[in-house]
């Protein structure tokens, strides 16, 4: 039982560390990409049910900036947007962009 609890605490701390790491990304568009990927979760679900306003709060960015970034991601074929949902079409491209390996 103690091992299970330790694992739960370790996973919680990892999630927190990843969230903090995402928020330390200086460029808001890259930060939005990182937060969107994290929101997809470990199950790699391509459909993230989140509003642009909520994504903005999670990424410490305005809804207007989130809208602009998602439009750019959509033009590049990385995501498709819908009502309170964002489908990740090219997770690797988003990862590369978030990690500053892609313009």
Please tell me about this protein's structure.
The N and C termini lie far apart (47 Å). The chain is mainly alpha-helical and 103 residues long. The chain has one domain (2-98): Arc Repressor Mutant, subunit A. Helix content is 62%, strand content 10%. Helix 2 (28-40) crosses helix 3, helix 2 packs across helix 5 (91-98) and helix 3 (52-59) packs across helix 4 (63-75).
The figure for the number of domains is 1
- Which CATH C-level class is it? Mainly Alpha
Round the mean pLDDT to the nearest integer and report it.
83
Helix content: 55-70%
Number of strands: 3
For this structure, the CATH topology is Arc Repressor Mutant, subunit A
Distance between the termini: 47 Å
Shape: globular
Strand order of the largest sheet: 1-3-2
Instruction: Output the CATH homologous superfamily.
Output: Winged helix-like DNA-binding domain superfamily/Winged helix DNA-binding domain
Strand content: 5-15%
Given as residue ranges, the uncertain stretches (5+ residues, pLDDT < 50) are none
- Helical run tally: 5
Q: Would you summarize the structure shown here?
A:
The protein has five helices and three strands; from the N terminus they run H-H-E-H-H-E-E-H. It has 103 residues and is mainly alpha-helical.
Supply the key terms.
single chain, 103 residues, mainly alpha, Arc Repressor Mutant, subunit A, three-stranded antiparallel β-sheet, 5 helices, 10% strand, globular
What's the SSE blueprint?
Layout (H helix, E strand, L loop, with lengths): L1 H22 L4 H13 L6 E2 L3 H8 L3 H13 L3 E4 L2 E4 L2 H8 L5
Antiparallel strand pairs: 1-3, 2-3
Helix pairs in contact: 1-2, 2-3, 2-5, 3-4
């Amino acid at each position: 039982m103690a091992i299970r609890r330790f694992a739960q605490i370790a996973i919680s701390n990892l999630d927190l560390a990843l969230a903090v790491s995402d928020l330390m990304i200086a460029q808001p568009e890259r930060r939005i990409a990182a937060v969107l990927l994290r929101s997809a979760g470990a199950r790699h679900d391509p459909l993230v049910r989140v509003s642009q306003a909520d994504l903005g709060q999670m990424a410490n960015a305005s809804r207007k900036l989130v809208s602009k970034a998602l439009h750019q991601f959509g033009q590049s074929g990385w995501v498709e947007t819908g009502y309170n949902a964002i489908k990740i079409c090219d997770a690797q491209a988003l990862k590369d962009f978030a990690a500053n390996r892609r313009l």
